[in-house]
Amino acid sequence: QAFFCLLLCVPWGSSCPPSCQCTERAGAKAVLCSSRHLEEIPKDIPKDVVFLKLDTNSITRIPSNAFRHLSHLEELDLSRNAIEKIDRAAFKGVAAGLRTLDLSSNRIRSIPKEALLALNAKLRLANNPWHCECALQEVLWGARLDPDSVQDITCHTAPREEYVGKPLLQVLDAGVNFCSVHQRTTDVAMFITMFGWFTMVIVYVICYVRHNREDACKHMDYLKSLPSTQGHAE
């Protein structure tokens, strides 16, 4: 926070979004858009920005390629917004260079794991109404989470009531594996589907055989009803 305050002392000479402040210090360019009542990410952020603060606004969604043109971006603060949805390709184009990403204190219940696992950035995901599931578990295991905030990733909802209100790390340490539950559910669904198709095939075969048998019986009855050749001869 102190660093960003110091940046305010040196103004930019280049273009800057009208709702933000742009500063520069030792060649590091920053765009500061904190508490600006923004409902979406500004479209005219300079391409050479290094630090971008969008915290304490009313942003609800991070769309695909939202920061793709910001190839120099290293720190991104999206905390204390109203973010509910993050697209799979939300951070495409900045994954390699981004060092920190703050998504804490939003309204995020779930997030595509592809959006975060491709990042090398240190992540802050605390204080969101998370639904504890396999994707979130994989993020916890595979992403670089800020160790100071990982305990604040809490299960707001979960497959079982006993996990609600507990830190996700605590639930996983107790031996719970949401991915195995997901796999079992998938296997059961696949089994039910296959059983349904098998039942349909059996019913079709039975109906087909019965229909052919009825046709054969009718044909035999018809042949029996015909006058014999011997009767005509007499």
Question: CATH homologous superfamily of the domain at 21-178 - what is it?
Answer: Ribonuclease Inhibitor
For this structure, what is the CATH class of the domain at 21-178? Alpha Beta
Structural class: alpha/beta
β-sheet strand percentage: 5-15%
Total beta strands: 11
**CATH architecture descriptor of the domain at 21-178:** Alpha-Beta Horseshoe
Instruction: Tell me, rounded to a whole number, the average pLDDT.
Output: 83
As residue ranges, the low-confidence spans are: 1-13, 182-189
What oligomerization state is this entry in?
single chain
- How many helices does DSSP assign? 6
Net shape: elongated
Radius of gyration: 32 Å
The biggest sheet, with number of strands, parallel, antiparallel or mixed sense and barrel status, is:
7 strands, mixed
Q: Which percent bin holds the helix content?
A: 25-40%
Sheet with most strands: strand arrangement: 1-2-3-5-7-8-10
Short description:
Keywords: Leucine-rich repeat, Membrane, Repeat, Signal, Transmembrane, Transmembrane helix. The model is unreliable at 1-13 and 182-189 (pLDDT under 50). The chain contains six helices and eleven strands.
Task: Tell me what you see in this structure.
This protein is an alpha/beta fold and 234 residues long. The chain has a domain at 21-178: Ribonuclease Inhibitor (Leucine-rich repeat, LRR (right-handed beta-alpha superhelix)). It has helices at residues 2-7, 113-117, 134-142, 168-173, 178-225, 229-233, and strands at residues 21-25, 28-32, 51-53, 61-62, 75-77, 85-86, 100-102, 122-124, 130-131, 144-145, 155-157. The chain has a 7-stranded mixed sheet with strand order 1-2-3-5-7-8-10. A two-stranded parallel ribbon has the order 4-6. A two-stranded parallel sheet has the order 9-11. The chain is elongated. The protein starts with a helix and ends with a helix.
